[in-house]
Amino acid sequence: MVSPHPPTHVQELRHPEVDPRIRWFRAGEEVDTFAVVTARFLIFVDTMATPALMRQVIKAVRPDVAGRTVLVLNTHADWDHVYGNRLFTPEGDLPGQLIASEATRDRLLSGHAQDRLRQQQAQDARFADVTLVAPDMTFSGRLTLHGGDLTLEVLPTPGHTPDHVSVWIPELGTVLAGDAAEHPFPQVRGGAQLAVTRASLERLQALDPRVVLPCHGGTTTPGLLMRNLEHFEFLRAQLGQLPSPADWLDRPQEAGELAGASYAQALARLGEQPGTVPAFYQDFHTDALHATLEDLAGLR
């Protein structure tokens, strides 16, 4: 997702429900990034959309680095979560250990990722100093990091992307959801991903968290997980009333309007309206309509 107003400054957020050992940083409407300070290590969860933005995060948390190992976890390989990786190489601003799933490493080393970066660099000078850096430590399945006082359980949560992972911190009852959950709703690409996305949301909900922190949406409430699940149920119930869902695949927005599941109607259920959320969620809504129609048509 590309913000129409790219951020230049990072803001640190504080919330009474969020433990102070979780440092929460926001770059405008683009993305949120976290740094978790444990007794043994400081771990950055994602590295923002540019080195310039991530450098501001590093500056803010540098006093917490003293006596701690520096780790970096990429939740997935989307550009707004990994383009600051180079700051943690041996030659970077804050050398550390880069960690991600094997699938995320594969995506970062792919020709598609290189092509995407070249296109962005040709269109926007803020990406000029971005270099794709893949993790040097990978895992498959789940991973547990023991920080002494805090435990970070890294859980596969595919759906938004096949390589996506989220973080569960049981001592704090906190989920760092990445893009597995979002406000107002997450992106889903294709009917086959609906069931996968729902399963990931249900997996996180089963943890019974007290706090859920997504990378987009700015909320802390664990109710976000149920709201995201209910959103997909709403689309399915409304579009399921249409005859022959396959006939609407090339007209998902028209199908939504006819079925009472337009973008404005979907947002209204969540207490929002188009002007109160970033514009890219309209594309997310169209994607979800199309995916739901595919699912209803049995085209998964």
Account of the 3D structure:
- There is one protein chain.
- The chain has 300 residues and is α/β, with parallel strands linked by helices.
- The chain has two domains: 11-180, Metallo-beta-lactamase, Chain A; 181-300, no CATH class.
- 34% of the residues lie in helices and 19% in strands.
- The protein has nine helices and twelve strands.
- The strands form two sheets. The protein has a seven-stranded mixed β-sheet. A five-stranded mixed β-sheet has the order 8-9-10-11-12, covered by helices on one side.
- A hairpin with an 8-residue loop joins strand 9 and strand 10 (165-169).
- The two termini are 25 Å apart.
Q: Could you outline the blueprint of secondary structure elements for this entry?
A:
Layout: E1 11-13, E2 22-27, E3 31-37, E4 41-45, H1 51-65, E5 69-73, H2 79-82, E6 97-101, H3 102-108, H4 111-123, E7 137-139, E8 143-146, E9 151-156, E10 165-169, E11 174-178, H5 192-206, E12 211-214, H6 223-239, H7 252-259, H8 263-269, H9 280-296
Parallel strand pairs: 4-5, 5-6, 6-7, 11-12
Antiparallel strand pairs: 1-2, 2-3, 3-4, 8-9, 9-10, 10-11
CATH class of the largest domain: Alpha Beta
**Global shape:** globular
Strand order of the largest sheet: 1-2-3-4-5-6-7
Mean pLDDT: 96
Pick out the low-confidence regions: none
Radius of gyration: 19 Å
Beta content: 15-25%
Helix content: 25-40%
Organism: Deinococcus aerolatus
InterPro entries: Metallo-B-lactamas (IPR001279), NDM-1-like (IPR050855), RibonucZ/Hydroxyglut_hydro (IPR036866)
Protein name: Metallo-beta-lactamase domain-containing protein
Domain Metallo-beta-lactamase: 30-216
